[in-house]
Amino acid sequence: MYQVFCLGGEKMNLNLVRNILLRLDKMKVGESILIDDLNKEFENVNSDDFLTLISKLASRYYVRIDGKWSHELYNLEKYNKILGLDKDGLEAIDYIKNDKIWEKVQNYLNENDYNDFTIFTVVELSKKIINKEFENILNK
Q: Is-contact 76 11, C-beta < 8 A?
């Protein structure tokens, strides 16, 4: 099944990105987690790849990093704190947390041999699938 996320020429697992976002969604208000501690929860990902991934998510307003802004996001260290999801991350969660929708997205990507979509494009695809589902419900 299709599970690849291209990130600066490297490939990352879309399910990994989804699981990171779902994990961050469970954080309580005021809670934070060191990037290194979060990385330890995803032990199959080396530290450099994890930092690159978190940096990309932060630069697109998916995650909030304590004290880091704009260009500095690419200089993240494992001891920076993640404060939770940012505005686009909160919206993305609504589109990717449902397992049925996630499976439809994965099937669509696999059936159409798309192997270079980022998580950001996948979120947009999820939106379209959900909107189509709503149309079907309303047209019944």
A: no
The CA distance from 111 to 114, in Å, is 8
Q: What is the DSSP letter of 46?
A: -
β-sheet bridge partners, residue 82: 33, 65
Residue 117, φ and ψ in degrees, nearest 5: -80, 145
Beta strands, E only, 8-130: 10-13, 33-34, 63-65, 81-85
Tell me the pTM.
0.83
For 16-87, the fitting CATH number among 1.25.40, 3.40.50, 3.30.1360, 1.10.10 is 1.10.10
Q: Which two tokens stand for residue 131?
A: 């909107």
Q: 71 exposed, middle or buried (CB, 10 Å; 0-12, 13-18, 19+)?
A: exposed
Residue for token pair 């686009």: 88
Dist CA 74 CA 60 (whole Å):
12
Instruction: Identify residue 88 by its one-letter amino acid code.
Output: D
- Which tens digit of pLDDT belongs to each residue from 35-79? 999 999 998 888 888 988 998 899 888 999 987 665 556 678 899
